Amino acid sequence: MSLDDLIRSAKVWRAGQVPPGRSVTTGFPTLDALLPKRGWPYPALVELLTDFDGIGALGLCLPVLAALSQQRWLIWVAPPHLPQAPVLQRHGINLARILMIQPATPRAGSADSNSHLWAFEQALRCGDCGASLVWLEHVEPLHLRRLQQACEVGDNLGFLFRPARYAAEASPAALRLLLTPAAKAGLCVELLKGKRGQATISVHPAQGA
Question: Could you tell me if residue 91 is left (phi over 0), alpha (psi between -120 and 50 degrees) or otherwise beta?
Fold first, then answer.
């Protein structure tokens, strides 16, 4: 098989491109218009990078989580705050389809617990799961590639929340978004991978991000 044949087979993609496949709407028309696939790439790993709490980072995910929770599980790994059930219900999320995983807390001064990363990868590989979320600090590029592959194996949408300082690092994630407060109101979303662009989204913040 030639290199051109391999690329056309949709098993690999060039740097800067979103992997081939389908997409699902984010629930925000302005954000859909910004994204290369006009929605969340699916299945895929999505990085949401921000240093701001309470600006609506998690709220950005709620519409697709609500849709996926009607048929499949949502797995949350090590959320910094336990999300409030009434908030999730108000956004249409099926609470009976949520599984919270809180691995052992890392030792003081250590890197993120390997158990967090391991649990997230296993969740992504689970065929009964529609979306998985995790909050981590540094992740090695090799592990990021494993997470992207796990999304494809499990037909899963993975949301990886990380601090904004990692925006400058290369990543094999299908989509990377930098999130900051908008100048007046709402959430400023900057597309970091592919054709760069920005959009301001009106999002109701949800506890947990």
Answer: alpha
Contact 157, 68 (CB under 8 A): yes
Query: pLDDT 10s per residue in the chain (209 long)?
Result: 443 443 333 333 343 334 456 899 999 998 999 898 899 999 999 999 999 887 788 999 999 999 999 999 999 998 988 888 998 999 999 999 999 998 765 544 444 458 889 999 999 999 999 999 999 988 999 999 999 999 999 999 999 999 999 999 989 999 999 999 887 777 889 999 766 666 766 665 554 44
Structural domain spans, the chain: 21-105+127-201
Task: Report, at the CATH architecture level, how domain 21-105+127-201 is classified.
Answer: 3-Layer(aba) Sandwich (3.40)
Q: In what order do the strands lie in the sheet with 73-77?
A: 98-101, 73-77, 129-135, 157-162, 44-49, 175-181, 187-191, 197-201
Kindly tell me the sign of the dihedral angle through the C-alpha atoms of 43, 44, 45, 48. negative
* Structure token pair of residue 44: 């895929």
Listed in sequence order, the residues at least 6 apart from 22 whose beta carbon sits closer than 8 Å to its beta carbon are 42
**Burial class of residue 187 in the structure, from the number of CB atoms within 10 Å of its CB (0-12 exposed, 13-18 middle, 19+ buried):** buried
